[in-house]
Each structure stands twice: as structure tokens, then as C-alpha cells.
Amino acid sequence: MPGHHYPGDPESSAPVVSKQSSRPRRNHQRLHTLFNACLQHGYCPTHFKDTITVVLRKPGKNDYTQPKAYRPIALLNTLGKVMETIIAN
């Protein structure tokens, strides 16, 4: 996303994992330690699973009084998505 705006948690962790970070190596090491601890203990912080659901209008619908005219979009926590991607790969 452009600028410093990130979907999901208002206190988003996206700047921490961003390539634009002022200390990418240090942040990488911290995330590595955090994710390894999660895997070793078999625990995923509930904060990693937080979502914010936004309801968007579907374009081209004639009647927006009907629930079918809307689409829910779930914005997931950034750190949770990063950890899931690393585990999946």
C-alpha cells in the first residue's frame, strides 16, 4: 500500500517488516526469534489472528438494501500473515 497506510490493525506491524525499515536486519532477527519461539512452544499469539471485517458494496448492483449487494473483506494481522507464509513455504 502506498505511503504509511496499512490494512488491518491500526497499530499495524507492517512498518516493522517493511523493506523501508531503517533496521531491516535487526527486525529480521527479532521476527526470526519470535516465530521460532511460537513454533517451539506450539503457541500462536491471539493477536496474530485478529481481523477487522470491512463491508464493501459490490459494483453494479441495483438495490443496495439487499445483503447480497455487499461483500465482507477480512483484513488480517500483518505478523500473522507473515508467519503463516513462512511456515507454508
Which helices and strands appear, and what pairs or packs with what?
Blueprint: H1 14-17, H2 24-41, E1 51-57, E2 70-76, H3 78-88
Antiparallel strand pairs: 1-2
Task: Tell me what you see in this structure.
Helix content is about 35%, strand content about 15%. The chain has one domain. It has helices spanning about 15, 25-40, 80-89; strands at about 50-55, 70-75. The longest helix is centred in the middle third of the chain and has 18 residues, at about 25-40. With about 90 residues, the protein is an alpha+beta fold. It is built from 3 helices and 2 strands. The protein has a two-stranded antiparallel ribbon with strand order 1-2. This is Reverse transcriptase. It comes from Penicillium diatomitis.
The string of secondary-structure elements, in order, is HHEEH
Count of DSSP strands = 2
Structural class: alpha+beta
Radius of gyration: 17 Å
How many angstroms separate the termini?
23 Å
Number of spatially distinct domains = 1
Strand content: 15-25%
Largest sheet: 2 strands, antiparallel
Number of H/I helices: 3
Overall 3D form: elongated
Ranges where pLDDT stays below 50 over 5 or more residues in a row are none
Question: What is the average of the pLDDT values?
Answer: 79
Which terms would index this structure?
89 residues; alpha+beta; two-stranded antiparallel ribbon; 3 helices; 2 strands; 37% helix; Reverse transcriptase
